[in-house]
Amino acid sequence: MKKLINSLIVLALVGTAISCSNSESGGKSNKGALASSAAEKVYVAPGEHDEFYAFMSGGYSGNLTVYGLPSGRMFKEIPVFSQFPTSGYGYSEETKPMLNTSFGFVPWDDAHHPDISQTNGELDGRWIFINGNNTPRIARISLTTFETEEIIEVPNSAGNHSSSFITENTEYVVAGTRFSVPIPQKDMPIKDYKSNFKGSLSFISVDPEHGHMDIKFQLMMPGFNYDLSHPGRDKSHGWFFFTTYNTEEANSLLEVNASQNDKDFIAAVNWKKIEEYVNNGGGTMMPANYAHNVYDESTHTATTTMKKEVLTVDPLKVPGAVYFLPTPKSPHGCDVDPSGQYIIGNGKLSADLTVHSFDKMIAAIEAEKFDGEAYGIPILKFEDVLAGTVKSGGLGPLHTEFDGKGNAYTTFFISSEVVKWKLGTWEVIDRKPTYYSVGHLMIPGGNSRKPFGKYVVAMNKITKDRYLPVGPEMEHSAQIYDISGEKMELIYDFPTHGEPHYAAGCPAELLKNNAKKIYRLDENKHPYAITSPDQAKVERKGNEVHIYMSTIRSHFTPDNIEGVKVGDKVYFHITNHEQDFDVPHGFSMIGQNSSELLIMPGQTKTNTWEPKKVGVWPFYCTDFCSALHQEMQGYIRVSPADSDIELSWSLGED
Amino acid sequence: MKNTIKTLIVMATLVLYSCGGGAQEKKVESKKVETPKKDKVEIVEAEPEVNKGVGPVKNVEVAEAIDAAMVARGTELFNTKCQACHKVEKKFIGPAIKGVTERRSPEWIMNMILNPVEMVEKDPVARQLLIDHNGSPMANQNLTEAEARDILEYFRTLN
Questions:
Q1: Rounded to a whole number, what is the distance in Å from the CA of B8 to chain A's nearest CA?
Q2: Is B33 exposed, middle or buried (CB count within 10 Å of its CB: 0-12, 13-18, 19+)?
Q3: For labelling, which of A44, A313, A477, A541 has a CA lying 20 to 30 Å from the CA of A533?
Q4: Residue A135: inside a domain, yes or no?
Q5: Residue B144 to chain A, least CA–CA distance (Å)
Q6: At what angle do helices B106-114 and B145-156 cross, to 10 degrees?
Q7: CA torsion A92→A94→A96→A97, rounded to 10°?
């Protein structure tokens, strides 16, 4: 017996030693106190909330994803330009019009640069805008419902890339074309591009109350590629800055042919001047055809209006409205510091950053110190507008954000790093590697007058070995750095969905108390809504069958329907009668050539079904709604096309 | 001696698990064994008016006379927000409404309308009703206290 006791004691001791040493040497996390402090910085305890929202563009997913910072947890994917079966967006009858364009129904886009609305240059948390790059469109998303409310197509644009950036009182959301094209479009030889193609920069006004967008004017610029842009702010409010490349106007092998000029331009556009010109009747109305899709929150329904004309402005007709600032090496990012004084052009083929001075630009313009012109637009002298050069030592600078404490942070794609440098002295303060090949970066409010300089998120293009391999395609990786101190500290990695180009972030406090929880049933103005289950009915109009249905935990009213025939087109108009937060119901019908619907409390959604086979076919709720969710189902009897069975519907014994 | 061994085994086990262990050690948690409950328990309340339930409503003054305006509003609200699950005369998803003001106190009824989740957790009558109705939860329809009061007035006409 003593032996047994002894061996147990030994076991206990050995066990202790082994198990503890295991946990200490386990994996890569053995970095002592540093690692644990990084863990504490990103750890958001169960049930607690993140300090910031981050809205990441989804790139080729066409959507916008919502994350928390610093946890890196993903909260939502907001469908914008892509059909989204998870909610029925782009499949439901109500939301299909959102994806209409002059090219017809385009169920996808390449979503790039989200930007949160501002008042006085500070984030106001009303809306977030994002551009569709491929079939030029700008979307506005409500930051109370986190739903896409409006999409406007941009005519005369192609590769809507220097978009969607907003002026400091959200007067305009600006959309510039990356590819120049014939305007108006016409059948012509591609090789005649030079001096015949044009680049349009669109200033889309935003209604201050409803956010509704309308193209105020399009500036018809020389046929360069307008790559990125940012508004002036504070002292430079009223101006907008666009980087250009391919000032060579090459139409083939741009990789080489658009890299010939030592310097391209940053175009400085005095939009206030052009606005005044337009308000006084200036500009030329041009025939056009583009879709304007607006979602009405009270009818839960989107409608498309095809617009037939657009106001264009020739920059030469508005003296003093546009200047070119020479900027080395095919600049990509175009970023303006919180004071509005510095315009940073990141020459992507360079090691250095070029910083222009707004004051010097104004002085040079006033002194009329020009260095020639391009297509009649005055070119300022590089030396006259240069504020300084950041000798970074990195390669391939792309984008810059600001912390509001006098520092700037620039990503370097080729050398995979974030470099922190000081505005005014241009000295490099710190550099940290990214994993790998970083594109954009984001500091919440980092492109406004008032950044929240606590974290920077680097959005990387290449993931490689950062996560467990999942086949050839990996989700992209993001890295969070704590930037509260002098040196940056990498504190977390997290995967992002699609390809985040830019992102926008804001303090959680700005949004979380305004987030909508339910749609009020008594405010539901959907034409097919029923506000009480005793209004449930089924109507036939020729071969269309309209089913007015309601849901509540956990049944459909009605759940037995007869009299539907092969060849009919059945519309399910479903109103969710729940009035409690986070209690949606789903709906799906066997054999539907569409997606399910996810219907929020108080909301009405519609989808269709064209029964092809005689029989009794089930439908059910797709969202686990209660303990009796599995019981939330029903049947539709489908009779032959020549059947004379009358429509009937019921629930229970009624 | 047996006790000592037991203690040591327990200790050894505790030590092994307390260090957080590697992936090879599966955490073993004891499962609660629920004692089987009777299918149905009759709810017998000697003095229903004593049970006011749990929620925002502490005291409701109910006048002798029925307020017709409140009844009209309450009827409308009941038809749009409640009747998906409640019928007046018969049990449906939830209990029949008829006679509810005789079975329950006014406060209990309003708290059940306004605060169903907590009621089911803390009020034994509400909990038993949930069991009796197949676990179908009473939906929180986000009504105001005034709206719940209107519905109560309507219920008073159904006895």
A1: 7
A2: exposed
A3: A541
A4: yes
A5: 12
A6: 130
A7: 180
Chain B residues in contact with A531 by the CB 8 A cut-off are 80
Put simply, the answer to whether B25 touches A19 (Cβ < 8 Å) is yes
Q: Among B4, B25, B85, whose Cβ lies nearest the Cβ of A5?
A: B4
Contact B5 A20 (CB under 8 A): no
At A513, the pLDDT band (50, 70, 90 cuts) reads: very high
Across A26-47, average pLDDT: 72
Q: Do A438 and A530 share a domain, yes or no?
A: no
Chain A neighbors of B87, CB-CB under 8 A: none
- Dump pLDDT digits (tens) for A579-593: 999 999 999 999 999
Average pLDDT taken over every residue of chain A: 94
CB contact under 8 A, A522 and B12: no
Q: Which residue of A has its CA nearest to B83?
A: A533
Average pLDDT (A113-127) is 98
Rounded distance between C-alpha atoms, residue A378 and residue A417, angstroms: 36
Cα A332 vs. chain centroid, distance in angstroms?
19
Residues of A in contact with B136 (CB under 8 A): 553-554, 626-628
- Structure tokens of A536? 């449930």
Q: Which residue of B has its CA nearest to A601?
A: B141
Nearest CA in chain B to A7: B8
Residues 6+ positions from A366 with CB-CB distance below 8 Å:
none
Residue A270 structural domain: 59-511
Q: Which residues of A344-372 are buried (b: 16+ CB within 10 A; e: fewer)?
A: bbbbbbbbbbbbbbbebbeebbeeeebee
Give the bridge partners for A369, in sequence order: none
Choose among A401, A378, A396, A383: nearest CA to A452. A401
Number of structural domains chain A divides into? 2
**Interface probe, candidates B9, B13, B15, B79, chain A, greatest A C-beta count within 10 A:** B15
Which one of 3.40.50.2020, 3.50.30.30, 1.10.760.10, 1.20.120.1770 gives the CATH number of domain B48-156? 1.10.760.10
Which of A566-570, A618-622, B14-18 shows the lowest per-residue confidence on average (mean pLDDT)? B14-18
CA A428, A433, A436: angle at the middle one, nearest 5?
135
DSSP letters, A116-185, are EEEETTEEEEEEEEEEETTTTEEEEEETTT-SEEEEEE-TT-SS--EEEEE-TTSSEEEEE-SS-B-SS-
Contact A311, A216 (CB under 8 A): yes
Structure-token pair, residue A44:
């958001």
User: At A29, is the pLDDT very low, low, confident or very high (cuts 50, 70, 90)?
Assistant: very low
Q: Looking at the complex, does the CB of residue B1 fall below 8 Å from at least one CB of chain A?
A: yes
A146 and A290 fall within a common domain = yes
Contact A557 B84 (CB under 8 A): yes
Q: What span, in angstroms and rounded, lies between the C-alpha atoms of A81 and A164?
A: 14
B121–chain A Cβ distance below 8 A for any pair: no
Report pLDDT for A36: 63
Quote the CA–CA distance of A136 and A175 in Å, as a whole number. Answer: 9
Q: What is the model's pTM?
A: 0.88
Chain A positions in Cβ-Cβ contact with residue B140 (cut-off 8 Å) = 579-580
* Interchain CB contact of A533 with B (< 8 Å): yes
How far apart (Å, rounded) are the C-alpha atoms in residues A253 and A193?
14
pLDDT at B43: 54
Q: Under an 8 A CB cutoff, do A580 and B140 touch?
A: yes
Residues of chain B contacting residue A553, judged by C-beta atoms under 8 Å apart: 85, 136-137, 139
Selection from A171, A168, A176 nearest residue A232 by Cα: A168
Q: What percent of chain A has pLDDT over 70?
A: 94
Is A517 within the bounds of a domain? no
- A582 Cβ under 8 Å from any chain B Cβ: no
Q: Does B92 touch chain A (CB under 8 A)?
A: yes
